[in-house]
Amino acid sequence: MNKILPLIGGLLCAVGVFRIDAAEPQVISLWTNGAPGFESRRNEPEQAESYWVRHVNNPSLTVFLPPPEKANGAAVVICPGGGHRELVYNHEGVEPAHYFNNLGVAAFVLKYRLAREEGSPYSLENAHEDGQRAMRLVRSQAHEWNLDSNRIGIVGFSAGGEVVAMVSYGATDGTANATDPIDRASCRPDFLISVYPGPLGIPDKFPVDAPPALLVVASDDVSHVGPVVKMLEGYREAKRPVEVHIFSSGGHGFGLGTSSKLAAIKDWPQQMSDWLADNKIL
Question: What is the pTM of this model?
Answer without folding.
Answer: 0.91
